[in-house]
Specification:
4 copies of one chain form a homotetramer.
Chain A: E1 4-9, H1 13-23, E2 28-34, H2 38-48, E3 52-54, H3 57-63, E4 68-71, H4 78-87, E5 91-94, H5 102-114, E6 120-122, H6 130-140, E7 147-157, H7 161-167, H8 174-177, H9 180-190, E8 194-202, E9 217-224, E10 229-238, E11 243-250, E12 254-257, E13 266-270, E14 273-276, H10 282-285, H11 287-303, H12 311-330, E15 334-335
Parallel strand pairs in A: 1-2, 1-4, 2-3, 4-5, 5-6, 7-10
Antiparallel strand pairs in A: 7-11, 8-9, 8-15, 9-10, 11-12, 13-14
Chain lengths: ~325, ~325, ~325, ~325
């Protein structure tokens, strides 16, 4: 079998990870990379041995014979590049969010529907983390009974705030940037759509977010059509690590995922007490999930099937995030 | 020094505990008990050696020379009995809630203010639990920085549902019955009053609550005047035990209290995995807190000082609970 | 019923605790105290309201009408004082160890046997800790199956080393001072006597112990007559707290007690990771156990029954500790 | 660069894992496999796409152009096959133990020394587990101070007992089969050799081991030349999972690795309490370690350097295991 020829667009921290993961994925070859940064291209050339380096996605797609692209560009390019690549006959893996407006999300959905022979996958990597997969299996087997409450935390370590603040002016806000994963997980675990949302938040440590009508920590309460509740908390000021924690309370059992975001199985007993050190970044915490999702993308192409996550999932998560932002900015309850 | 002479009104599970705790409290004597149940009075006589047994509080107060009463009667009697006893010149320890209406709460507040020589204390026992006290100390010392989020869970084990359902017709609802402790804790830890509240919930296991316009699990999202957020979850269907869990996320650190409601320090490794068994009731979990609060009540009387918890705290917690109930019943956002 | 009139001998940290616990024990009165320290006597007078203060045990016993004594004097007085008090017709609670030589232990056993109407109890308080009691119940009910391995850790925090070093010249060694509790627990849980022992150790931090042919950390491996194994570790250099941890591995399940010696139910998430702070002393960890054992002592007197722990248990624990010391000092395997 | 051409000998559970890992290892190609089982060869052909299949190692080595072999054959073939392959000019990765006699171990050491251009690596995979690597780094950086005690548990789940019993007649005993990893870890962490050993054990559940003068659970206490102590426990009857747990107590801090052998980050709250499910096999627990060690083997070949684990490490671990077995069988203390 010929290997799937892959091009990666965007070589930031996550872009490089995806590119690297392609090199150890069965049935895939890293053929080309694209970035505005000469430094990143140089690094990819040296570390990953890729020779086809571009600064323009169109040039890459037109020059090189590719089967698939992985889009890890800034959020505002996701929709446009997805549409372009799908139309050029490429399979597309797109990082979250699907787009920065709901209209753009729906446009992507439309193009995906028009190209049924192409695999389109969205980077909600948590769905491919072994612990989340295990929890999903438990839920689907009925082990927790009827779901009552979904609780999702997504908090970045404060040590990463400098980068976040630099990007803040162009950010669609914490709900879309950080909480979109939780909106997706809530829909996945609860198997329902929300019917109401109320969101609040504030600038507890970084007043810089005020000028963008945003907070450094925000939260939302949602009700779903099946009566299930969801509480989402997202922020940027955790001191212990990269805090992604999920809980699903059911009538038979409750599951908690990552309530201690431990970096490994070492427990330290010293003058601070008995403690576990924590993961400090998404790369560290979701290392395996990132590998798994790329393998699933390639496997879908090879086996001619669709991934579980559809473009519509992307639209819905973005829509909820947008409504949360709206609720937060205007202090209003929104019935969806 | 003469011992403080105490009468206990109501001898249900918690009433008996309070009566028993009086017998081992320094400077206090259990002099009389009052209950509608002959069986409970008999038990108190046999186990606690109390000989002055009454079925009518007024008869008890008028017949016996008492310094103080502990009111553990049904919620709808709290206000009336508190006022009566204060007016009779007694120190009063009253179980939560202060009253079932805000007007009644305020009436108690007024009578308390008119009797400055009498100690009035409300049974928010969590404030006297060693773990909660330790957390409060950490917060007051600035160790968590600025508070961002308070999260409070109060879930009874489903094994206790029969008793709860029997009482449901007379219950003011889960927010007042269960969540009132969390509303008090949120005010205590956050040192602020809420400015908005949105509450939801449903009948996930016990449809019986529908007829009372209540749910078996409910939750609320609150914003406070200092920008802090609070998420409260209360319910009646926990399978693992009596689940009282509190988290305070701050800009410097996060504290979690009781995230594993372990019954003791034993860890079991067997075919279920590595596990801890859980406390099954408030008596088991808050054993020490109940002792501590009664000791504090007596100490306040002896040392002629006021307890930290004021009648006003009771009014506020009840008010928030009432607003949460209102929000839940009408699916509206309430700005306070 | 008349209250049991109790005198406490020795008012160090633990002596004061026992005296204080008597004041809140049903059916008991603290009548007299005895100590060589005027300061300690003064503290007892002020804090516990005891007026009969002595510096000589004999004077106390002869002057005051007592029913029972609690002996918390230095180890080398235990046997002599126990015998004296038993012969004077008093019930005796004696702190561990029973005596500093096996001959003295046996002499106490003899006098105890000759005074069957008197309660004699030894202060192996761990047997009265709720977690240990729960584990014992599980074992007795067959829940762990056949016991394979007992592991016992008893390590004092290094912060307490100064006091320990002061006392080192008169200490019978770590096995008798520290590990005797574990030898007792091993016999209790395994329901068997050891048949062989090999002990090692060293001075890892405090070379001062070398001059006494002792170590600051020591350990022993034992085989029991029912084939069960035991590993005991005792030391004085823990940095995280007072580390008393016990494990019983069985064919059906394994139990661990106190593997995190947490001081309360608060979990802290900060730059050190996710952690629990630890108990720093035996008083803090075994607070409830100390209360329980004194209550049991008084209850035995009142109900005219014997406590579970016999003088013979004290002899056996001391004997094993002595053999461990012997093995350690000579690097030999000892078959018992 | 040409890829390292690898042949795998032995395709049992671990052999297949190694073969599979070669297929995703940078700079390596799986060229040939060798097994006595037609079924295993068929599986390798189908799943891994390897076409050169042999039932005889010599035929494989003589027919196919290989750079390296991975030996996962039964323990009694390790030494002979290692020597044969080294002499044929191949790099060798050999599963533990190095050999079943110390003489054979030393013979391998000699041949390894005579072939300095060939990489020889032993499969002590725990040294390549991220948690063990992290602990080692902490120790080497002095974070735990001076090591006092090493505690190592290696217990297989009882669910795997059938396979173990089948193999029991040919087994050199639990110390060599199970505990050899811990003897290696103890040397690695403590950086010293043992000077005395005493070992005990028994048949607690499976009397079948009696006929082989072995136990189903065994333990050993060791003293090292630097005064450090080690307690090793190995067995075959765990009910909660594959229990590999390691503790290193130091004067500054204590490290614990895998004290809860959790299969993932999911915590379950249900009628059993709050629990984590456990890994059930070495493949599950050491998945990453197995990948890492194979990558290190290939990297050593490519970069012309030696792995950290030497043949001498294999000899020493086997020697200690043999002395433990000797001590266990004769109930004697052995000074090394």
């Amino acid at each position: 079998m010929n290997k799937i020829r892959v091009g990666v667009v965007g070589l930031g921290r996550l872009g490089f990870t995806h590119a690297e993961n392609i090199t150890s994925t069965k049935n895939a070859s890293l053929i080309a990379v694209c970035s505005h940064s000469e430094e990143e291209l140089k690094k990819a050339k040296e570390k990953l041995g890729v020779t086809n380096c571009f600064t323009d996605i169109k040039k890459m797609v037109e020059t090189i014979d590719l089967d698939a692209v992985i889009l890890v560009s800034p959020s505002n390019f996701h929709a446009e590049q997805s549409i372009y690549c799908l139309k050029k006959g490429l399979h597309v893996f797109c990082e979250k969010p699907l787009a920065t407006t709901i209209d753009a999300c729906k446009e992507v959905e439309k193009i995906v529907a028009e190209n049924p022979s192409k695999v389109f996958m969205l980077g909600f990597m948590r769905r491919y983390d072994p612990s989340y997969l295990y929890a999903k299996k438990c839920i689907d087997e009925g082990k927790i009974g009827r779901p009552i409450l979904f609780r999702g935390y997504s908090v970045d370590p404060n040590s990463a705030i400098e980068g976040a603040l630099k990007y803040a002016a162009h950010s669609p806000g914490q709900f879309i940037d950080m909480a979109v994963h939780d909106f997706d997980l809530a829909r996945w675990f609860l198997k329902a759509e929300p019917t109401s949302i109320y969101a609040i938040g504030g600038c507890y440590l970084h007043q810089e977010y005020k000028q963008y009508d945003d907070g450094d920590n925000v939260s939302a309460l949602l009700k779903f059509e099946n009566e299930a509740m969801a509480f989402i908390f997202a922020g940027r000021t955790a001191t212990h690590g990269y805090n992604v924690e999920t809980e699903i309370v059911g009538t038979h059992a409750t599951l908690r995922i990552g309530s201690v975001p431990q970096k490994n199985l070492v427990e330290i007993l010293d003058k601070e007490g008995v403690r576990k050190e924590c993961s400090q970044s998404f790369n560290e915490r979701f290392d395996v999930a990132f590998k798994n999702e790329i393998q699933e993308f390639i496997a879908c192409i090879v086996e001619e099937r669709y991934p579980e996550i559809s473009a519509h999932d992307g639209t819905q998560a973005s829509y909820i995030a947008e409504m949360a932002t709206e609720s937060f900015k205007n202090n209003i309850l929104i019935n969806l």
